[in-house]
Amino acid sequence: MFTGAMAALVRLDRDLRVDFIRGFSLWAIFVNHTPGNWLGHITPRNYTLADATESFVLLAGYAAGLAYGSIMDRQGWFFAASRVMGRVFTLYVAHIFLLVVFTAQVGLSAARLDSAAYLDELHLDPFASDPYRALLEALLLRYQPSFLNILPLYITVLALFAVAMPLLRWPAVMLGASAGLWAAARVFDITLPSWRGEDWFFNPLAWQLLFFIGCALGYRPPNGHPLSVPWRRWAGALCWLMLAAGAVMTVLLYFAWEFTEARLPAFAPFLAAIDKASLHPARLLTILALTYLIAHLVPKDAAWLRSRAAQPFNLMGQQALPVFCAGIALSFLGRVALEESDGWAMQSAVNLVGAAALIGLALLTAWYGSEKRGGRQTPPSGLQPPPRIDNA
């Protein structure tokens, strides 16, 4: 019955490759944000320079270009921009709610376990020393504790998109301007202001390039000629070469740094400069190579995308915002549990309970959304997919 409900609530009138990858990325974010989780050793961050964050931002841009671009073409830029800003407000409210929940659970755990290390490590110590100022700065997005920096990035680039949306009709101009801003942010170290002088963990002036690339790929113009990059065998070979080189660099950078410094002293500075904050070119090329290969080698109508194994990821990908927020909150609870015991039993419990909670929340959110739209469902065996409403 559970799988039947999932199958009924997964919207099939979408590109399920996007939903599956976004759902997988959300699961990986939960795993990677749970220190001590053994599954963290098999997530993509261990063998590619790009990780779940890059895919999340790229696919968010794809969804924005697809959903709001069509609204702009039908009802004009102002109406579409107002819809985008409505989504920005929703994301802002979700961020503040997550901030309150996360800060409360970390603070309570720190008090009960008599461990201030949680507050220091997760950059929540200002709530202990200057709580009112910390709250104000958090509301202004000028203060972002650890794990709470992805939504501010998303909020900022989506607000930029509301202004730049008309440029969807001229993708070369949009991407050229976006690339120029990315280059300037990297070369001149330009970022948005923060409270205590630290740079944004994800510099939105750099990461907007990946978001706008997704927008350009997702937009469907009225003339029926969307932006596409045709398959070329040499380009595919270059992508595979990039991924192989990235895998080697990932090992040298994160798992064999002492060897790199000792045996590859000329190469070590380049590896050390592969930053995440301002979207290093190597990380950007990695996610673009992955996108090119998946777009051309995985058919949109692949049977496995509609299989029972894929349904949980599809559903999570289609309900990304609540699943993301729950994953961040659950990751800290998983950390506390694994610090008590990190044996097989606890590892299994953390991962099974966490995955079940994320899937259950996605299922509940999808069902509630269909009910709210007036699509009251019959019993699972007779369910039909609800009408499509894109959530960028």
From TrEMBL:
Keywords: Membrane, Transmembrane, Transmembrane helix. The chain crosses the membrane at residues 55-72, 84-104, 146-163, 200-219, 231-257, 277-299, 320-338, 344-368. It holds the Pfam family OpgC_C. Residues 382-392 have a biased composition (Pro residues). Residues 372-392 are annotated as: Disordered. InterPro entries: UCP028704_OpgC. This is OpgC domain-containing protein.
